[in-house]
Specification:
The protein is α/β, with parallel strands linked by helices. It has helices spanning 2-10, 17-27, 31-38, 41-46, 48-62, 65-68, 73-88, 95-110, 115-136, 140-184, 205-222, 239-254, 266-275, 288-299, 306-312, and strands spanning 188-191, 194-200, 226-233, 258-262, 283-285. The chain has a five-stranded mixed β-sheet, sandwiched between helices. α5 crosses α7.
Length: 313
């Protein structure tokens, strides 16, 4: 169960006693409800396997169970669901109970269960419990009230498990966004002391800040003396982003690195002039090749014209 253990270790959901009390108040679960639930406890306990089957049968109609619950995961999922049912009628809904629900949510998240799929299966399970309770009842009115009390526990469970599913989905999306941002602003080492930062696409304030952080860390890690920042692929730059780039150049200079900006398009150049951006302290070169040649000159490398290189051969 390594995948599920990993999810359990990284999930951010954690409920304090105060959180649990607030959730219980939200669903309206009180002492009278617990007493009513006790009257149908035996029915639920005896048919726990049947209700567990109802949950997974409904899942099977919505998803491919074999691909979702691989190997021993299915056995563990059924065991946890059966334990869940037993706990629902236990009358104890404190920290231990909520932790069990959190573990279920983490398991469902690990296998990729969607919220609507979970809600459908849970509703189907509650309906099976309702049918069994009413069928075994000698006092329909009392049994129905007991089921409504149990339903409050179900609402508590839904809130906790859905929180985990949404939280884990947001965590994954956030990690993917971080990875995409990292890939979108790669800082590459061309040779000792020389970095190149190609920028492509839309450059907004958030991405500009991420770019600065990445560049400054790379300058320090690689002990870079020159950085060529190529913005050939940038279509437009607003005043905030332009000022951010200038601040990046200044920060790099404080760390001992010279920044050469290459690939300024005519549109971007005109826009910067119209915005009144001060470019007097920015070293710009027309294209990437020119920027690399200037960078190598700063580093002390000798650039021979192509004709001279041919003669040397």
């Amino acid at each position: 169960m390594p995948a599920i253990q990993s999810i359990a270790l990284t999930a951010r959901n954690n409920f304090s006693e105060a959180d649990i009390e607030r959730r219980l108040k939200l669903v309206g679960l009180d002492t009278e409800d617990k007493a009513r639930i006790a009257t149908i406890r035996d029915i639920v306990v005896k048919a726990a396997d049947e209700f567990t089957a109802a949950f997974f049968d409904h899942l099977g109609r919505s998803t491919d169970l074999a691909s979702m619950f691989r190997g021993s995961v299915m056995e563990d999922a059924r065991r946890q669901k059966r334990d869940h049912l037993m706990a629902m009628v236990s009358g104890q809904y404190g920290k231990e109970y909520v932790d069990q629900r959190l573990n279920l949510g983490r398991l469902y998240s690990a296998v990729g269960m969607d919220v609507p799929v979970f809600l459908g299966a849970f509703h189907h399970m509650l309906r099976a419990i309702s049918d069994a309770v009413m069928k075994a009842s000698r006092e329909p009115a009392g049994s129905f009230q007991a089921f409504l009390s149990l339903q409050k526990v179900g609402f508590l469970d839904i809130g906790v498990i859905v929180d985990v599913l949404i939280d884990e989905r947001e965590r994954i999306i956030g990690a993917q966004q971080d990875a995409i941002r990292e890939l979108s602003t790669p800082v590459l080492q061309v040779r000792n002391g020389l970095l190149i930062l190609p920028i492509i696409g839309v450059l907004d304030s958030q991405r500009a800040k991420q770019l600065t952080d990445s560049l400054l860390h790379s300058i320090r890690a690689n002990r870079a003396r020159v950085v060529v920042m190529d913005i050939t692929g940038v279509v437009a730059v607003d005043s905030k982003v332009a000022n951010h780039l200038i601040q990046t150049v200044a920060a790099a200079r404080l760390m001992g690195a010279t920044v050469i900006i290459t690939g300024l398009s005519a549109d971007v150049a005109q826009a910067l002039v119209a915005l009144g951006v001060d470019l007097s302290k920015v070293n710009t070169v027309g294209d990437l090749q020119g920027g690399l040649e200037e960078a190598e000159e700063i580093l002390g490398y000798r650039n021979l014209p192509s004709a001279h290189r041919s003669e040397d051969r």
